[in-house]
Amino acid sequence: MRQFLKQEWGNKKMLDDLKLPEDLKNLSYNKLEILAEEIRALLIKTISKNGGHLAPNLGVVELTLALHKVFTSPYDKIIWDVGHQSYVHKIVTGRLSNFSTLRQLGGISGFPKPEESPHDIFATGHSSTSISVGLGLAKARDLIGEKYKVVSVIGDGSLTGGMAFEALNYTGHLKTNLIVILNDNEMSIAPNVGALSNYLSRLRMNPMVYKLKEELQQLIQKIPKVGETTFRYLDKIKDSLKYLVIPGILFEELGFTYFGPVDGHNLRQLSQALLDASEHKGPILVHVLTKKGKGYKPAEDDPSKFHGVSGFEISTGYLPFKPGPPTYTEVFGKTLVEVASHDERIVAITAAMTEGAGLKEFSQRFPNRFFDVGIAEGHAVTMAGGLARAGMKPVVAIYSTFLQRAFDQILHDVCLQGLPVIFALDRAGVVGEDGPTHHGVFDLSYLRMIPGITIMAPKDENELRQMLLLAVDMDKPVAIRYPRGQGRGIKLSLQPTFRLGEAEVLREGEHVALLALGPMVHIAEKAAELLTQVGIYSTVINCRFIKPLDQQTILYWARRVPHIITVEDHVLTGGFGSAVLELLAEAGIRKLQISRLGYPDRFIESGTIQELQALYGLNEEGIYQVVTGRLLTLAGVDARK
Ligand SMILES: Cc1ncc(C[n+]2csc(CCOP(=O)(O)OP(=O)(O)O)c2C)c(N)n1
């Protein structure tokens, strides 16, 4: 920390004077080390204000500098898996001057974004893609006859994703020149899990083993060849020696040459290892050991807490606590613990998001019934299918955006067989500053078309609780989608107060019906309040269920008001409004004006949730504007009165 403060208030900054990334090539290691500290200071300062992924970025400062020293981006291609650790890369590739806009509306993205810079060769945000992308780039390079190097940087957490293994497997088969950097900090968001993680722990115990391996191979090659039999015999010895003394054999067997482990904070060692790797042919895996949160004590001490933050106090590392009602996530987690304490068949599954998905308490209270499967959403869902088939009641808690990964597993391994799996889709709707890779605005479209699934969206945290209680008593697949952030401070009721498929009419008015979903219900109520001031009286319906829709209630109001407006925190294509349109068309209702409010057919940028809602007309003013614009004439109301 002291070091950070010194840099922050020091006089001259190297960062401002260098021409980056070019100058990195000729900078001495001493100077690179000073630069690394300046970058750490900038990261801490910016993320303390804007929020973002602090600990992952502090851990890769030296690795990023070494990569840009050895390779020549954008000619050489560097792909950042997940991309949450690409801030240093952004700072040294032309985005220093507007780094203060990180993650803000119209500012620098918190993830690699090709539209932002040619140095961001591929957009990432969801994990475990970098080796597949790298292989694609490398193969295209070979086919086109280019010579650039391709480097995929993947964390040990992201390596738990099945796709990473699929890519390793095929890279070994193609034998293409591809460098994979395994950034091993022993952490996913929380400590990493699984057999692979144990394997990496064993590798970590053998510093600089790649030297030993090379020496060993040279030694074996020096043994004179005496006839065919001896040669074959030596080959066998060589193989068994390999198993005995060459760590990294898993990667070797997959067709990679294993380099490492390398100290990821030693610029000299790192640069040498990367240089060696760049000169080798075929697939190479460089195992780099880093410390998550490196250089900022609060983050080093608690890297999980500082994985992603929304701001903090630099001098103390204090993360501001937002007073007020519990979050949806907390209410979900508490209710699940309560239900599980009465029903031993309840099991909970997360894909590396124990804390984020609200399952911490569950994992401590019921360790035998809790499964953190790593970043493996597809596997999580199919495993839930197996658990359900054998009589358990699995609750799969995965953010809306990451469940996209498991579409076929939901369809084929759960719904096709009508298995009672509960999908808890946290962070549904726009999520704010993480932006387009993370907004959960597609789940209704990708779930609604699956036969046999029930889909619910609570208007507040109490309804979330009630929906979970309802879902546990159902014997079929259920999805509950709920937003990021705090609830509304509603008292929690003990039992469900509504039945499956039942909407709630919150107010009645003859000019327009606002059919709203989830957190949009409260906003629609506020819009209705505004509208009464200009003499427009609205019916507000909390629809609660997207599948099945409350047909009776919707059709009743469709026959009584001249205008229906659907409001959803989701894309319009195939979402809730589309479901209402289908219902109205099938019921033969023609004489009705319908407007759908939701997100348009494009990827939604970063910004706070409030900014995005305002930008896309999904706040009370937006609804008010649409209604007044289209209805005043129709309703015969004079707004000037
Ligand atoms: C498909 C998918 N699931 C979950 C996440 C959420 N997530 C972001 S970073 C992360 C941990 C990644 O760990 P690792 O690759 O080791 O990187 P580190 O943060 O430790 O540097 C997770 C689970 C994601 N981005 N993508």
The neighbouring-strand order within the major sheet is: 7-6-8-9-11-10-15
> Cofactors and ligands present?
thiamine diphosphate
State the helix count: 26
CATH homologous superfamily of the largest domain, by name? Thiamin diphosphate (ThDP)-binding fold, Pyr/PP domains
Radius of gyration: 28 Å
Largest sheet: 7 strands, mixed
CATH architecture field of the largest domain: 3-Layer(aba) Sandwich
Report the CATH C-level class of the largest domain: Alpha Beta
Arithmetic mean pLDDT: 93
Description:
This protein is of the alpha/beta class. It folds into four domains: 2-206 and 248-301, Rossmann fold; 209-246; 328-481, Rossmann fold (3-Layer(aba) Sandwich), CATH 3.40.50.970; 504-635, Rossmann fold. Helices cover 42% and strands 14% of the residues. A seven-stranded mixed β-sheet has the order 7-6-8-9-11-10-15, with helices on both faces. Helix 7 (130-144) packs parallel to helix 8 (162-174). It is globular. The termini are far apart. The structure holds thiamine diphosphate. Thiamine diphosphate (TPP) binds at residues 56, 59, 82, 84-85, 126-127, 155-158, 183, 185, 187-189, 292, 307, 351-352, 375, 377, 402, 405.
